[in-house]
Amino acid sequence: MGAQVIATNVASGGGDGLDATGQAQRIATATSGTFFPSGSDVVLDEAVTVAPDAPQGSTLGCTTTFRINGADAGPEFVQTVSVKVNDVTPPTVSCGPGVNPDGHTPGGGRNAGFLRMVAVDNLPGVTVGITDDTTGTTSRPYASGTDPPRQPGTNPGGVALVWT
Questions:
Q1: Less Cβ around it within 10 Å: N or C end of the chain?
Q2: Quick check: 134 and 160 in contact, CB under 8 A?
């Protein structure tokens, strides 16, 4: 995206101000910018999108210099944003047979109702969370390959697992 102009009609005391002939409005419109009347608050809502092919570990930056009456407004009107590309590879998760209350993993593909979620990522600290689609209840995040922090139970209908 190119530069966008944010223009404010600043009164100069001797005329219609910066937008005396509509020039500020035209520049703002031509750059998909915004024109604000003098004295109004300006709130900037910014988003930084990192390209999917950004190198992991790199630091990306953007500097915005604000100008007043066509001149740099000084160092207090300079904004610098830095984004460290921490991880560009999504984690993977698998769900397979887990250990039952007797301490055994059922063999032969038999579904005993106990499953173990395992998540893998190229950065440490990956956690797993479970959401019950019926109740919307969510478990606290827990370490991959371990048991979720929960007390199993059933809802009054007896079919959905309730995580507490």
A1: N
A2: yes
